[in-house]
Design a protein that fits this description.
The complex is a heterodimer of chains A (169) and B (202). Helices cover 14% and strands 46% of the residues of chain A. Chain A has 169 residues and is mainly beta. In chain A, strands 1, 2, 3, 4, 5, 6, 7, 8, 9, 10 and 11 form an eleven-stranded mixed β-sheet that branches. Chain A is globular and about 45 Å long. Chain B has helices at 3-18, 22-32, 80-95, 116-123, 137-146, 188-201, and strands at 49-51, 57-59, 68-73, 103-108, 130-133, 151-156, 160-166, 169-172, 178-182. With 202 residues, chain B is of the alpha/beta class. The chains are: A mainly beta (169), B alpha/beta (202).
Chain lengths: 169, 202
């Protein structure tokens, strides 16, 4: 347990130096960006999204999941009140071609591994996003893991095209 | 024959054997001959009559007389397309008046869904100089085929279909001919270097 706490503390220190959202970010939004979510052996940090253009039907979600346990876990799915549905996808660049692959069996978070969902790789695709995602707001979402169970997170909405949080683990 | 040329010929041989698409060949040629004069590696494009994001007619004649960047994407794209449009918006901001002669096109690969009433509002999030291109489904597909653009739909249980597609920006010269590509993973500096050269060559 102390390992978990130390790990979380280390991450918190790492993230506290981040101000990727700029000076104008709402305090609540910054707080959420700095708060790792710990669920059993899993630690989730840097859950974020991007603002969407008007009329966009889809958005993307990114996050970083670390499994400090001795057993593999699996991210099975995600739901959000901000979207009609959410699905896990893997984007593969193949000779300048973007190939999208739904991860129908979920995403394995191997024991001891850190999995980063980020632009150009794994991501959550949100579909049916109403009026869209607005910069500097939060999107609530619920992750379901095979072992860790259901984990509530908040994704912080960065500007369109933003590279997101800069301090990758 | 210098070694660079030999390497180039070998690469071309590999490419030919692999029988990849003509569009891919074109972009590889550019990357392989970085500082060679810009020349059209392949014939590209054909006459078209489509519409912009505001429903105004647009034809191939619009491509003449100025250099262009052309991107192919779709508005249901969660990741790459808005990122590419944001990036080109940043390029235009950085170039400022240097980009006065440059036109940027966003051609939909999803004409079924990307009608002007969707494409119009969508593009307002980006540089207003970006010209969206859509139109009747068959006509858009014919245009994409003439530009050798890879795209494909594949079924998705949740939202009907998703798309795979080509992600590089075409660079077109003042005659609308292919003058290279800016790939999605290039640094902003490298992209700007290529675009400035495109603009200088007209």
């Amino acid at each position: 347990m102390s390992t978990t706490r130390n790990f979380a503390a280390a991450i918190a220190v790492l993230i506290l130096s981040t101000d990727a959202l700029g000076q104008g970010a709402e305090p609540a939004v910054q707080m959420a960006a700095q708060q790792p979510i710990i669920a059993g052996d899993l630690t989730i940090i840097q859950a974020w999204s991007r603002a969407t253009p008007p009329a966009a039907a889809t958005g993307a979600g990114y996050l970083t999941i670390t499994n400090i346990g001795a057993v593999d876990d699996r991210l099975l799915g995600i739901t959000s009140s901000a979207a009609e549905l959410a699905a896990l996808h893997q984007m593969i660049m193949n000779d300048e071609r973007m190939m999208m692959q739904p991860l129908e069996d979920g995403l394995i978070i191997a024991a001891g591994a850190t999995i980063v969902l980020d632009p150009g790789g794994f991501h959550v695709m949100f579909f049916g996003i109403g009026d869209g995602f607005i910069e500097r707001t939060l999107i609530s979402a619920s992750l379901t893991f095979a072992i860790a169970g259901t984990v509530e997170i908040s994704l912080i909405v960065y500007p369109i095209g933003s590279p997101g949080p800069t301090n990758s683990p | 024959m210098n070694s660079l040329r030999i390497v180039r010929y070998v690469l071309w041989g590999v490419v030919a054997v692999a029988a990849v698409t003509v569009g891919l060949i074109a972009s590889n040629a550019l990357r392989g001959t970085e500082d060679a004069p810009l020349t059209a590696a392949v014939e590209i494009g054909a006459p078209f009559a489509l519409v912009t994001q505001t429903g105004e007619p647009i034809s191939d004649a619009h491509l003449n007389g100025h250099p262009s960047l052309m991107f192919f994407g779709y508005t249901h794209c969660p990741d790459v397309c808005p990122a590419a449009l944001a990036e080109v918006t940043a390029w235009l901001a950085e170039l400022g008046p240097e980009a006065d002669d440059l036109t940027v096109y966003f051609v939909t690969v999803d004409p079924e869904r990307d009608r002007p009433e969707l494409l119009g509002p969508y593009l307002t999030a980006f540089d207003p100089r970006i010209v969206g291109i859509t139109g009747p489904v068959d006509d858009v597909r014919a245009m994409l085929a003439s530009y050798h653009v890879f795209y494909e739909q594949f079924p998705d249980d949740n939202i009907g279909y998703l798309m795979n597609h080509y992600t590089s920006f075409y660079m077109l010269d003042g005659r609308g001919e292919f003058a290279g590509a800016v790939t999605f993973d290039e640094s902003r500096d490298e992209a700007l270097r290529k675009i400035r050269r495109l603009i200088a060559n007209g």
